[in-house]
Amino acid sequence: MLPLGLLMMADHLIDDEAEKFLGEIGVEIGVARQFAQPSDLSLFPAGVGRRQAFARLELADRLGHLEPFGEHVDERRVDVVDALAIAAQLVIHGCAIPLFSGTLGTGRGFKASRKSLQNRDRGAKARRVMTAEIHQLHGDRPPSLDPMMALVAADMNEVNSVILDRMQSEVPLIPELAGHLIAGGGKRMRPMLTLACGKLLDYPGRRHCKLAAAVEFIHTATLLHDDVVDKSDLRRGRKTANLIWGNSASVLVGDFLFSRAFEVMVEDGSLKVLKILSRASAVIAEGEVNQLSAQRRIETSEDQYLAIINAKTAELFAAACKIAAVVAERDEATEAALDAYGRNLGIAFQLVDDAIDYVSDAETMGKGVGDDFRDGKVTLPVILAYARGSAEERDFWKQAIVGHRTSDEDLAYATSLLHKHDTIADTLARARHYGQRAVDAIGGFSASQAKAALTEAVAFAVARAY
Amino acid sequence: MLPLGLLMMADHLIDDEAEKFLGEIGVEIGVARQFAQPSDLSLFPAGVGRRQAFARLELADRLGHLEPFGEHVDERRVDVVDALAIAAQLVIHGCAIPLFSGTLGTGRGFKASRKSLQNRDRGAKARRVMTAEIHQLHGDRPPSLDPMMALVAADMNEVNSVILDRMQSEVPLIPELAGHLIAGGGKRMRPMLTLACGKLLDYPGRRHCKLAAAVEFIHTATLLHDDVVDKSDLRRGRKTANLIWGNSASVLVGDFLFSRAFEVMVEDGSLKVLKILSRASAVIAEGEVNQLSAQRRIETSEDQYLAIINAKTAELFAAACKIAAVVAERDEATEAALDAYGRNLGIAFQLVDDAIDYVSDAETMGKGVGDDFRDGKVTLPVILAYARGSAEERDFWKQAIVGHRTSDEDLAYATSLLHKHDTIADTLARARHYGQRAVDAIGGFSASQAKAALTEAVAFAVARAY
Questions:
Q1: Chain A partners of B248 at a C-beta cutoff of 8 Å?
Q2: Where in chain A is the domain with CATH 1.10.600.10?
Q3: Which pTM was predicted?
Q4: How is domain B146-463 classified at the CATH fold level?
């Protein structure tokens, strides 16, 4: 049974009857896209976010970039059965709800509109349909994060608890905006890595949960600032915080989360962890500035590009893994192995992201295809196409990237050039190379559930095509 | 003799003859607005900032918001005598050059154009005029930061050295942009406080120099982000970084400096200092978000306003002072005393800033008068005027602050209301109250040069009217 990852925030706790009802049709209540746990409900204290930004139906919000169900935002309660009605309605229209953002395998053609939430009959009627749809998705799925998520589910609850607790502030805008991004999406990839590496090392303590939350705060701060820099409108199918609350709020709440991350680390008290993560933060910022400078520079080399993604993406992956070795008090070789695992996984992850950006299957991808092209970002598919292109093709790239010629036809032509020179496929091949290095980096550890999960996570990262 | 605080960056070190020549007319070469030290020149290693952003004549740049002398920016050398020619030229036009930004007592009516810098004769001729002008400014000046600057001059050189060293990066844009703000202005008030408090405690070590640099990095990061939030064009008479390099670069370089601050603190290794400054950073961000939320909220109370400035300004002043007690390993009472000194000074400082913003003597202030009004910032002068105003006046304030009615005439009327209700004067009176509390907070320390300097710094902060 695939848990739906509904984000269900209710000021009144959901009662047993409702929970049973949900259970019957396979819906579990939990933090969005995390394995649901019985304790999840208690993670949502009454009044969190003050203005009830959480009292949205995450499920509906995620799908098809619908408007949040505004009429409920200010009502201070969400009725579980109402939520079901919507979920069911979506299913009726042919859309199955995945656990992970991006695995929208059958998500085509649905037209969920901003309907009333009071249609209980419809919800009841739809039960069987919904269940059936969900089972359809389950089965011989490609490599997945599921084993890793199962491995760390209990720890992740603690991480989520720290996250929810420490993003609070007397200034209501802070949990409101932070919650939009933190609770509203993402696989919690980085904290999950910290936790999984903890398992790999049989670390018996709890310190890594708090530190994993700090890592997620750093990541979230980076995302908030990135969206300002890139002037993004959408992230994972939701409106970006800068679009909703403005650039200023995004910048400042990012600063808050970043500071809060350091407060949490200081509470843990490991100077070594602080060193790793303060350095990682500086390297990330350096990488982001470097990327900004490289924007619209068609001459960017593969080496320069690798340096950028190593800094802006892989460094935090590496740090997230490495700190598990630090809290578990392992030797430097172990630290280095986990650093290498995370770093190579991070590079693979980013390479796949950069390839996916050009995969023009709008039905699978939703919006956002060709964003890098329009932003003049010189990523590996373009670098390779430019290197392999004819003089005319190079001229095209110059005009496109340097000269801002990025109409839809230009994008179509650009994509055709990428395919002509196999640069999407070759970018994915490069990703597999780094993936393999990640797997080999932890090759020395004896077999365990954790090792298997970490290995499958790499396979998942390089196999995903969305 | 008033040191001019010329920022003189030369790839070839200035020779003895030039230095002597400068000395004769009272010009010292140094970091802008810092006491010049013989060692200053060595602080500017060849190639710092790569694209020679430093190779500007700070002096000229500061006055009247001239264009930087662009022809020299790319030449990789600045001739001292050329600089003099300009300085002299400015003096000829009736402008004396102050040490501190803002003390432009006689800065009216000069029209220095972007002339050639090769006019040595003119420079030579102007010597006497210049000297005379400078002496004119000197004399029975009101309370000043001079004693504090003299007290910490040697330590500040070390701080500057750390700053210049640690703002470097392989990504050229980082030192370029950071240098614009860090080297280009400001009194280094916060690190100066750390150093002066170190003197007060007879701290014999050097750790506080590095930490003072970290404090300045945090402050600089905040300024960079503030200017993005406020969409500012000018800071201390110079173009803001966001105007020159764009918002994205300002956000990301701010992030870099912030991370670097933590790296520097981690190197020092005091968890207590890390706790104080990570907490301060979170509080500052909270205060900034709070201010953003309060923008255009005319009902903001004096208490709410005080909470905002306590967070966004006073917290870092307090932290800067308190960490001196931590490195000197003093007891909690001492920490608390220095915290209180810094906090009250910070509040006084901000109150005066907010009052000054409405002082409409454009000749004294230069640009930027009424910025808070146009931004809809509800500062104490407005809060008091709104509280004391008639129904009609309150309507005006609502229309202005909430309704964006902020034309020049509106500003003029607003200012007249502030004067009518004495709210500028009363804001300054409030500042003196906090200033007095700052002075009393360190009343228990036995008399010393440091205590006198810290006391005079408070007097300076509340007496300045620019």
A1: 228-229, 292
A2: 146-463
A3: 0.72
A4: Farnesyl Diphosphate Synthase (1.10.600)
